[in-house]
Design a protein that fits this description.
two-stranded antiparallel ribbon; globular; disordered N terminus; 16 strands; mainly beta
Length: about 250
């Protein structure tokens, strides 16, 4: 699964980003098909300043991988460097099509911005501060914040920001039986309103494991199965299996 190279680079089987990227990455996500195990892309999390993370996406290739997208995440981070903010600011661009997804703080709350491709116009929608609860990777922070509640079997409901649709989507998360017996908690996320099922592209399944960090248990996402935030080569949503590896 994970190979440590010279104790400095985080190398994952099936991923071959440049050495400078592997050396700087603290987390690597490997996305493969749900039915077929071929690697579609790998995402590398590169911390910058406190609370800022740059994520670069590469598709496997020879002699080297191809960089296809980049995302910037800005939010509060804890001692471990894991995002603690459920509503980080995000900016993502797919270099293949020019698709752009953004969620940024504005004076009146939040602005969701989307561009389908480099020939399309931007679509903007502003929401008040209380209209959305979670943005992008902020779901990970939501799980850690409500870890004991989820482990106790209670359900969480929240409004998730979707720049693609220019709206918030009501979601619910609850513990579900684990496919991996080594996982400490598994979560199923689906729509709070079944009438909107076409938006999400199916349920999401996640596996978390608790790892000790400076004496404290720190839940970490180990696996994600669902529609990802990166489109396929044809510009269509893709349902993938993502495995995460940590330095």
């Amino acid at each position: 699964m994970i190979e440590l190279v010279l104790a400095a680079s985080l190398a994952v089987d099936g991923c071959n980003a440049p050495d400078t990227v592997e050396s700087a990455a603290t987390v690597v996500g490997r996305a493969s098909g749900v039915e077929e195990p071929d690697v579609r892309y790998c995402e590398y999390f590169l911390p910058r300043a406190a609370g800022e993370v740059r994520v670069v996406y590469y598709t496997p290739g020879q002699p080297q991988a191809n960089k296809i997208a980049e995302k910037h995440i800005t939010g509060d981070a804890g001692r471990s460097g894991l995002l603690q903010d459920t509503r980080p600011q995000i900016s993502q661009e797919d270099f293949r099509s020019g698709e752009v997804r953004e969620a940024t703080r504005v004076a009146d709350g939040w602005r969701l911005r989307y561009r389908a491709n480099r020939n399309a116009e931007y679509r903007d929608k502003v929401f008040s501060d209380g209209q959305l609860d979670v943005i992008d990777a902020g779901f990970d922070a939501l799980v850690r914040r409500h870890w004991s509640v989820l482990k106790a079997g209670e359900e969480l409901q929240f409004q998730f920001a979707s720049p693609v649709h220019g709206r918030t989507i009501g979601l619910r998360a609850a513990a579900t039986p684990c496919q991996n017996p080594e996982a400490d908690l598994c979560i199923r996320v689906d729509l709070a309103q079944a009438i909107l099922r076409w938006i999400a592209g199916g349920d999401i399944y996640l596996e978390y494991a608790e790892s000790a960090d400076q004496g404290q248990a720190e839940p970490k996402l180990m696996r994600f199965v669902g529609v990802t935030n990166l489109l396929d080569r044809s510009g269509d949503p893709q349902r993938l299996n993502l495995e995460y590896f940590y330095r």
